[in-house]
Amino acid sequence: MKTPGIYLTGIGVHLPPSVDARDAVARGEYDAADHEWYGWTGAAVAGDTPAPDMAVSAAREAFSRAGQPVSDLDLHVHAGFFEQGPEGWSAQHYVLRHLTDRDVPAFSVWQACNGLVGSFDLAASYLLASPQRTAALLTGADNVGTPNYNRWDFGIQNGVLGDAASSVILSKREGFARLLSVTAASTSEVEEQYRGEEPIFPPSLTVGRRMNMKERFASRRGVEETVAEVVRRQGELRTHIALQALAEADIDVSEVTRVTHVFTGQESYLKVILDPIGIDVERGLLEFGRPLGHLTVNDQVVGLNHLVATGQVGPGDHVLLIAHGGGVSLSCAVVRIEYRPAWAR
């Protein structure tokens, strides 16, 4: 979808300190062989800071940088992968309450690790649907450091998770970057691989059953065969929607300056994502992401913030955001940098 007249006016992140992966190995939390193989050097750890509080922090930074009044806000969308707080409680309204007293709609989006980039499509469509609407706030946050979960052993490939929050303001007011296009799709037939043999009812969280993705994958045809099937199907569709997003942005793949993507410690994993699109890994963020871990919904926006803040992209440069979540949900967005904002080095 082309997104005429939609800009990024603000962007913000909350990124906790990184814990060295070697320390996790020494504590017995991270398998030494996995550390050697997967290439992660650390993970961002938020301690006992709740995910919604991190989202508030990121959103405040986004509004501060935007210089745009909160009164412009017409929509809030919040994304996360893990539980945000008490069951039956709406984290999105907690975030909104700490930012404004305006009675704008706030929605929670669950698209696994595609939640935040996937929200670009929803928010842009919402703004374009009415001339009276001006701005949408997107937030994403996760703290995976719960007592019954080991961030160093997610159970499937690329499995070290970090904590973070990030935020973007999409607006019809001119901003430091322009959103040129967004695309989204689903490989719904892959949901059974992520479900495994677990019963749908009662939900595992309600009976204290721990999430074990490796066990679920193994319940089908074995972990390696199942992962290969998911990667193949996901890769085909991801390549298609990435090229579609570039075509709708009226640019060629050669005009993509940088790419933000799911963080990984392995160059080979990143090549699987980028090679079919025709983009080399040097345009990605391999080294930046290695000490942070996979930040669930936040990798792409944290990466974009890093590129702009450090001056690695500037006016006229194009950034491709590629996201996938749970093997099932995929989104891409193309952003063009309009000018270097005051907060960038």
From TrEMBL:
One of its GO terms (molecular function) is acyltransferase activity, transferring groups other than amino-acyl groups. GO terms for biological process: secondary metabolite biosynthetic process. Keywords: Acyltransferase, Transferase. The keyword Cell division does not apply. SUPFAM superfamilies: Thiolase-like. Residues 246-337 form the Beta-ketoacyl-[acyl-carrier-protein] synthase III C-terminal domain. InterPro entries: ACP_syn_III_C, Thiolase-like. PANTHER family: 3-OXOACYL-[ACYL-CARRIER-PROTEIN] SYNTHASE 3, BETA-KETOACYL-[ACYL-CARRIER-PROTEIN] SYNTHASE III. This is Ketoacyl-ACP synthase III family protein. It comes from Streptomyces chumphonensis. The lineage of its organism: Bacteria, Bacillati, Actinomycetota, Actinomycetes, Kitasatosporales.
